[in-house]
Structure formats: C-alpha cells, structure tokens
Fold this sequence. Notes:
about 15% strand; 3-stranded mixed β-sheet; alpha/beta
Amino acid sequence: MDCKSVMGPVTRVLNSGDTAETAINAMAETHDRLIPVVGEDGGYVGMVSAERLMHRLVPRAVTLMRKARCMGFLRERPDELRARLESLNATRLADLLDTKAAAVGEDDALIAAMTLIGEGQAEVPVLDVAGRVAGIISFDGLLKFLEESNGNGNGAGPAAS
C-alpha cells in the first residue's frame, strides 16, 4: 500500500515567510498542532509546531533550567507573557521550523510513514512529485482508513487526519 492511498487532506499549509502570528491563528482556527510549511517555490521545507511556539513563550531563564522540575516558585505576570507573545508574533516561520520533520512521497510505501509516526513524528506530510504538500498521514488518519476499508484493504478514499 502506498502513502497516497492513506493520506488525508491538509487543513492548512503556511509559507516560510509568514509570521508566527499567522501560525498561531491558523492553529486556533483548525485545532492542528502541526502545520506544514512551504518555501517560496511551494516546496515543503518543514513543520511548525505548537510545542515550538510554546517554547518561545517560556522565559529564557526557564529554558536554560529545562531539566529542573521544581519551578513552582516562578511567577509570571500577564504583561511579561504578552510582551513575549508580541515578540513571537513578528517572528518569521523560517526561524521557527522543525526542519527535521521528515516527509514521504505519494508513491512511497505506507510503512515509511508508519515508521516515522512510530519514532515520534505525530504527522507526516505526503509530497507530490514536485515536492509540494499533497496530504498528511497521522495515526488517527491511518486508523480511520482501516476502519473505512473494513479490513479488505480497499478504503473508501483518503482518510482525514
């Protein structure tokens, strides 16, 4: 089975020149935690994640003490958080990308995407022959595909992820 048979639709694709504010608004609208990002030529360049955006909202001193679990003594004022959000909002996605987020091709074997998901990548972009994002494969999407196929391997079409 190939990735094209199982991929679901992409809710949103962003451009590397877009700002974090655009990504935050898109995530709020679509409820996606990961969004594929393309370059000026429309080719896939990486993913932007809610985790990476949240990391930028955490005070720098805390990120340096990452291993420390007892941070209950720290207090945050709304104006401090707002200031970091305003700063983050202006950041270009090119500076926030997870460029290690792998993608698969439409004709690649499904096992390639399954392996990436098994290694911790929540969603795997599926690229067409031109390198553009054609769809997405997730664990939920794979389960939906299997449910729709009734175990006969003939799904009713791409599974939404």
